[in-house]
Amino acid sequence: MTPAPVRIPVPALALISSVGAFGTHLLLPALPAIRDEFGVTSGQVQLVVSLSLLALAAGALLNGPLSDRFGRRPVALAGLGFYILGSLLAWAAEPFAGVLAGRVVQAVGGGAVITVIRAVIRDVYDRDTAASIFGYMAAFVLLVPLLVPLLGGLVAEHLGWRSNFLVAVAVGAAVGAFVWLRLPETRNPVAGDDARLVPVMLSLLRRRVFLGYALNYACSMAALQAFIAGAPLLLIGSVGLSPSEYGAWYMLTAAASLTGFALAGRLSRQAGIARMLQVGLAISVSATLLLLTVQATLGVPTPLAFMLPAMGHTFANALMAPSATSGAIGERPDQAGAAAGLLGFLQFLFAAAAAQLAGLLQDRTELGVALVMAVASLGAAAAYLLLVRPATAGQPDARQAQ
Question: What ranges in 93-162 are assigned the alpha helix state H?
Answer without folding.
Answer: 96-124, 127-141, 143-159
